[in-house]
Amino acid sequence: MNNNHLFKKTQLSLTCWYASIFSGIIALGTLGVYESIVHAHYVTINNELKTVAGTFHDTLEPLLIEPNKLDKTIKNILPDLCLVKEKCKEKYHKNRYITRLIQQGKYYFKFYDLSGNLLGNAGINIDKLYFIYLENELKNIKDSQQINYRQLSVLLHTKDNQEWGYLLIGRSLEDFDNYVNNIKWFLLLGLPLLIILVILASWYLAKKAMLPVYKSYQQIQQFSSDVAHELRTPLAAIKATIDSVILAEKLSIKDYQEILLTINRQNQRIINLVNDLLTLSRLDAINENKHIIEKTDINLLDLIHDLTEELAFLAVENNIKLQQNIQSQEIIIIRGNEAQIYRLLSNLVVNAIQNTPEHGLVTILLSVNKKEVVIKIIDTGIGISEEDKPLIFNRFYRVDKSRNHHQGNSGLGLAIVNSIVLFHNGRIELKSKINQGSIFSVYLPKS
Ligand code: ADP
């Protein structure tokens, strides 16, 4: 297949199609996975931030007495709280969840009065933070070192439900960004690798898909060259005969008769070949669409009697004994096409007669088993070698080319037999030993 330009081109274009479609699907899938991971993390962080904000809101409000005034008592809850005008030491109370979060450098808390003036802060230090109050809204901000934060603003009320001021709670997204970045790189580096694998797999799949097409293409090529070859011999013989007549100076009536007989013989070979080819192509079409041809009930006993009668002359001519062996008392009926079944058996019997030396025996044996009718054509002829057995049903295959050619056989007889058996949902088996004989067993379903 690799040497055929057309198939190589088709394989390449199939590979491109497969690879682009699968790569597209994989790229979309990768993007989807990435987006879901980012989304899942955002949801987790938002929930964490809302929980922390809610806890603070509920704990702080009972301690807020005067609006816009941040009392030192808040330090009980936020130990590292630093009021704006205060010098702050770093002193943490251990074993508190909030303290631990702050210690981990994840959170900042900023208190503003109602006019937006900073009152105090706790947690990590973040520059470039301007006060913006967006009620219960989450937003992303960035500091001068390009670190991202997720921030939530909360309006706080005093104990007696007056508006007190604002609390901005933010969480650093540094660990989250690192994680997402790692995933991004992993996917970005993995994607080309996956695409390379997809291209290799597509090349392999395209080759697999093309192989049956290539095989049937080869068969068609072989078939055409076989047909041409088969036609060439009789046509060349006819031409040579005609040329000899043209060159001959004087010919008698007897000579003319002999010449016409030769031309007629070669012509008959061509007719036989064309007829066999037609039969085969019709059988091929029928086998693809089994209901086209009419099927009737066939009495096999009658058919075998007719066949034996018709071929008795050929058997006598070849000095062969042709006999029947009917092993069933009942009438054997099968459903099928009578002309085809007749052709099937006649091909097998003619082959048996032609391939059996003088004084040999050809038997047509008919029997039935539970499900099938069995017809065996048994001969005591030259037999078929083990190498030839698997090839014998191929079109134009001949065991001994020179001998069969001489007899005018087309090499399509067993191919026709095989097609007919196939059409009748049957099977054919061959047992043979060189110089001992052959048995062709045809199994057909009972009517
Ligand atoms: P052909 O029409 O040339 O006989 P077939 O397809 O019928 O072609 O047979 C294929 C080959 O098998 C032929 O070369 C033939 O000699 C061989 N063959 C068929 N039947 C027998 C048999 N009963 N014994 C030995 N050889 C056989």
3D structure, described in words:
With 447 residues, the chain is an alpha+beta fold. It has two domains: 5-181, Beta-Lactamase; 289-445, Heat Shock Protein 90 (2-Layer Sandwich), CATH 3.30.565.10. The chain is 51% helix and 19% strand. The chain is built from eight helices and 13 strands. It has helices spanning 5-60, 97-103, 174-247, 253-288, 300-317, 338-354, 401-407, 413-423; strands at residues 82-83, 107-113, 118-123, 138-142, 148-157, 163-172, 296-299, 321-326, 333-336, 361-368, 372-379, 427-433, 437-445. Strands 1-3-2-6-5-4 form a six-stranded antiparallel beta sheet. A five-stranded mixed beta sheet has the order 8-10-11-13-12, covered by helices on one side. The chain has a two-stranded antiparallel ribbon with strand order 7-9. α4 packs parallel to α8 (413-423), α5 (300-317) runs parallel beside α6 (338-354) and α6 runs antiparallel to α8. The protein is rod-shaped, with a radius of gyration of 47 Å. The mean pLDDT is 87. The structure holds adenosine-5'-diphosphate. Residues 351-352, 355, 379, 381-382, 384, 392, 397-399, 404, 409-415, 438 line the site of adenosine-5'-diphosphate.
